[in-house]
Structures are given as C-alpha cells and as structure tokens.
Design brief:
The protein is mostly helical and 186 residues long. It is built from five helices and no strands. α1 runs parallel beside α3. Pfam families: DUF420.
C-alpha cells in the first residue's frame, strides 16, 4: 500500500505532532534514559546552547524572508526559505533534545525576582508558542510540499501559514531572549 501524503495531511500532521511532542516532553521530563544516547564531550554539550542561539537567529531571518517573499508573490523563494527554516528548526530540535536528554533543562542562575517575574513568563510564552506552532507548521509544510504552488490557493496553506509563521518567528525570538538571560546576562 502506497502512502498518499497529499490526501492524508491532517492525519500525518497529528502523527508527526504527537511524535514530536512525545520526544520533547520525554527529554525534558527525563523519560528518555540518558544511556540511550552516546555522550559527547563536555565542550560539545556546553557549545550546544550557543550553536542553537545562532541557528535560531538565522531561522528568524529565513522565516522573515519567507514571509516577505510570499507577500511579493515570489513563491519559489518563499518555499526555499521556509524549507530552510524547517531544516534549521530540525537542527535546533535535535541539538536541544540531545542536550536536555543528557543534562536536563538549564537552571536559571539569576536572582529569584528576575526568575519569577521575567524569565519564567518569557519561558512559558516561548514554550506555549512552540507547542502551538508544531501542528500548524507540520500542516503548512505538508500542504506546501505535497502540492504544486498553483494548487495551494485551494487549501488553507496561506491562512494557516500566516499564523504559523508569526508564532514561529516569535517563538524563535523569545527563545533567544531566554538564551540571553540564561547564558549572557546571568
């Protein structure tokens, strides 16, 4: 039986979303055994947040460029930027999951008042946006990769894509603010 992704976008979106969230929550909550993955040297683990911040910054640029290209009707460029953004997100996620699986989530080293009133609210919004983005991103990515550009007008790709891109962009920006608080300011 051949998988026809074009006609199964909602179902594939659900499966990919569930698998992605299971991996993220499994890593963050310590459900993935540390021994399940090989341990890199400490220097590599220490570098991951900084690499991810750079990846996130590049993703902000590629998402913004993708939005601009879509608005100008340059759909081939839009597609290239959004696929690049998806690849950057995949790199980010693999590195993040690897680090969190091995060492757990980073602890906020700053003052408790900053932690309570700045860091945790920013982190909560970042996490919420990331969770909400996942099914939206899979949906528009699957629509965009299983159909020719001309056929996308008959789908919810543009409408859902506007929301997905805005939330995705904001999530990456807030992620870098969180990074700045964790690794640069404190």
């Amino acid at each position: 039986m051949q998988l026809d992704a074009r006609n199964r976008v909602p179902a594939l979106t659900a499966v990919l979303t569930a698998a992605s969230l299971a991996l993220v929550f499994g890593a963050v909550l310590g459900a993935i055994p540390r021994g399940a993955v090989p341990r890199a040297p400490e220097a590599v683990l220490t570098a991951i947040p900084h690499v991810n911040a750079a990846v996130s910054a590049v993703a902000v640029v590629t998402i913004a460029a993708g939005i601009a290209f879509a608005r100008r009707g340059e759909f081939d460029r839009h597609r290239a930027m959004m696929l690049t953004s998806a690849a950057l997100f995949a790199v980010f996620l693999v590195l993040y999951l690897y680090k969190v699986t091995l060492v757990g989530p980073a602890e906020f080293p700053g003052p408790d008042a900053v932690r309570r009133w700045v860091y945790l609210p920013l982190l909560a919004v970042h996490i919420l946006l990331a969770i909400v983005c996942i099914p939206l991103l899979y949906y528009v990515l699957l629509l965009g990769t299983t159909r020719p550009v001309a056929a996308l007008a008959d789908t919810a790709h543009a409408r859902v894509g506007r929301v997905a891109a805005a939330l995705w962009l904001l999530s990456f920006v807030l992620g870098n603010v969180v990074y700045g608080l964790l690794y640069l300011r404190y």
